Amino acid sequence: MTDTPLSPGPLSPGATIGILGGGQLGRMLAMAAARLGFRTQIYEPGDAPAAQVANGWTRAAWTDEQALAAFAGSVDVVTYEWENVPAETLDLLEASRPIRPGRAALRVAQDRLDEKRFLEGLGLTVAPFRDVPDLGALTAALAELGRPAILKTRRLGYDGKGQVRIDDATGAAEAFAAIEGADAILEGVVTFDREISVIVARGVTGETVCFDPGENVHAEGILRTTTVPAALTASQRQDAVLLAGRIVSALDYVGVMGVELFATGTGLVVNEIAPRVHNSGHWTEAACAVDQFEQHIRAIAGLPLGDGRRHADAVMENLIGDDMDRLPELLAAPDTRLHLYGKAETRPGRKMGHATRLTRR
Amino acid sequence: MTDTPLSPGPLSPGATIGILGGGQLGRMLAMAAARLGFRTQIYEPGDAPAAQVANGWTRAAWTDEQALAAFAGSVDVVTYEWENVPAETLDLLEASRPIRPGRAALRVAQDRLDEKRFLEGLGLTVAPFRDVPDLGALTAALAELGRPAILKTRRLGYDGKGQVRIDDATGAAEAFAAIEGADAILEGVVTFDREISVIVARGVTGETVCFDPGENVHAEGILRTTTVPAALTASQRQDAVLLAGRIVSALDYVGVMGVELFATGTGLVVNEIAPRVHNSGHWTEAACAVDQFEQHIRAIAGLPLGDGRRHADAVMENLIGDDMDRLPELLAAPDTRLHLYGKAETRPGRKMGHATRLTRR
User: Fold this and answer.
1) Where is the ATP-grasp domain (chains A, B) (predicted)?
2) Mean pLDDT in runs of 10 for chain A (361 residues)?
3) Cβ-based contacts of A358 with chain B (< 8 Å)
4) B312 and which of A16, A137, B35, B358 could share a cystine (Cβ 3.0–4.6 Å)?
5) Measured between alpha carbons, how far is A329 from A314 in angstroms, rounded to an integer?
């Protein structure tokens, strides 16, 4: 905590990093911060597994002005593990402490329509999309993009939530009702060879470092596995890394970002960006000297980015709900690093942990 | 925390591990416990960097019966990061909760004379030594072992503390005064090719796993670097691993132990054992899927031991006192994993962190 205005220089060990959101990403950020000698303060109204490994926990509503002021006063920089932090929360915090990554990235990532337009504006390829503020627009968009297509709310979607697939049997009105009439976009379905992601970091001085792209498998909208290396051509790998760098530079971004891509026969299509550490980057903890969590902390603390080269091939598997029953087997598996999130209750669909197996060393 | 008597089975995620001692070893144990979904409670009367990443901190004297009872009641198993926890503390805790590693190892490791006798009793080679309860015994021992020799207090020595080197110019009375007349032993000086250590783990079912031996360089009694692999012959490596296994089995040990050895032309000499995670095992965090801290937590939680194979060569360097001035260089070094301990104040001789460089991947 500093009483004086923040210096633009790097944070020194002992400084405090405020983290908005108390889930597993915040938890892993807090542990990475601790390894670099920083203190952490979690802001989270609900359950906070992150608080178990943090120095402090501000448990208050996102709009609690007094709590936000106290939180801001106790930290040197603010970051987040969750891109849907309300704008009014950020307004209050930003008045006294830097928020990294900055507001531009949040604005773009909080709204699927703005995100698509931003990415298109950079000359990148995205899935065909239409703005569908109402049922009439949806009907017109379906006629243009064809079926199947995916109706997605503009805001607050993650892990497949806020999405409806529209195939030949789905009525437009029915789909619109399923997302409760929220502002939405319609997305054409992209035929792809594989889903990949790039975890990219950008420091305060503009330097950019990418981890090797991982190949992702989803089921029911939730990430199941990430495999590195992804089966890409040299040119696809290079495109992925260049495009990720282009995105973070355009946003004057500071921190780690997850960029999800489709690899298709005609090039890479940007699916979405997440302005935070990303589930598909968890393998870095087992296979790199500096992982995505430390890389993010280094960036927002103004430190030089670390060496994120892989020293092993790896497969990261998410442990979701009943996957926890497999713990005895996973604990005994060779070359496997297990990471559980300290969540009190196992629920279907809930991310409880992950396991990374080193497949070639 | 359990209200019912402890089952002999493995702890489940959510269980609480009590850690006696709040320094950097406790801190790294707490982080490893968190990664396996356990909660931690630190017991430490003084400053406790470990408490920054733990669920709770009992800040009380080692002899505070009320605090100890509350601590015991809040945890499922007790472990320690420091072998000199007073016996009365352990007596109080042991009445209600298992202490792992057990008392036998602590008894041996708390007293250099008992330790030497125990190791000799196993048929292992130790430095020549004599029991020197008084000045007369010291004079006689010096005549037998010759000079130089090292006078060491039987209890409470670490990092070169409680030791006096006696060379030709040192008077026996002067040496005895330097250790304030404490019960002591005299040790002959061993001529060695290199100092190595084995980090060995033993689980509740008796299984034993060793990390690859590391080669240590000390200065002023403090570990400076550990390098893996150590420059050993195949037979020395095998001997090191076998003797470490023999020691933990003889003690019915549960947890991780550091075994310091001298490699000499005529075989391995056991220097000392530490019934806890060990500074010379810090490299495991950067070069193994399961590191010494997780291995210890697995053992004391009754879980299967993990795969501790190395996937890289590494050099771990301790950051002591002013070494912290080198942070900018260390943060920018390739292939390097930095770990700081969150200590508020840098002091000469104080261990502030460590850096592990992967030298071959």
Assistant:
1) 116-301
2) 54 97 98 98 97 97 97 98 93 96 93 97 97 94 95 79 87 89 92 97 97 96 96 97 98 98 97 97 96 98 94 96 96 95 93 95 71
3) 289, 311
4) B358
5) 18
